[in-house]
Structure formats: structure tokens, C-alpha cells
Amino acid sequence: MYKYEVFKIHSLSSRSYGILAKEKIGRSWITVAVTAPFSNDYGTAHQLAESCSARQLSPPHLVDVVSDFIS
Q1: Which domain of life is it from (predicted)?
Q2: What pLDDT is stored for residue 52 in this prediction?
Q3: How far apart are CA 52 and CA 66, in angstroms?
């Protein structure tokens, strides 16, 4: 089982959001993939993360999905 979560990076002048892919192993959620921050809008990143979770996207495809999303 996979879940996708938004993470935030702060700089002095802005915030950027990316996505973590986590896999449930036993009772723990282990981060198995991460994107570079790709959006300044939390809602946009959250919407994509929710969609990836609902569809149980395989983590190796996360970068391709984000690339398609932003192009």
C-alpha cells in the first residue's frame, strides 16, 4: 500500500512543495520516493498527492507523473 504526502521547503523569500511517496511496511510508513519541489501552491501539490494515493501509483512513476502534471 502506498500513500503520497506533500512536503514543504522554506527559503528566505518563498515556499515550495513537493511530494513524498511512502510504502506501508509492517506497521510503519517508509519513504520510498521523493520529488523535487515543483509548485509554490500547496493546494496544487496536495491535489496531485491525493490523486496518486487514490490510484495507488507505483512510486517509480512519480517523477513522470509530476513532469506530465507541470508541463
Answers
A1: Bacteria
A2: 98
A3: 10
Longest dimension (CA), the chain: 40
Q: What is the pLDDT along the chain (71 residues), one digit of tens a residue?
A: 999 999 999 988 999 999 999 999 999 999 999 999 999 999 999 999 999 999 999 999 999 999 999 99
Global pTM? 0.92
What's the CA gap between 27 and 55, in Å, rounded?
Answer: 21
Burial class (CB in 10 A: 0-12, 13-18, 19+), 10: exposed
Amino acid at site 71? S
Rg (CA), the chain: 12
Q: In 10 A of CB 28, how many CB atoms? A: 8
How many of the other CB atoms lie within 10 Å of CB of 57?
Answer: 19
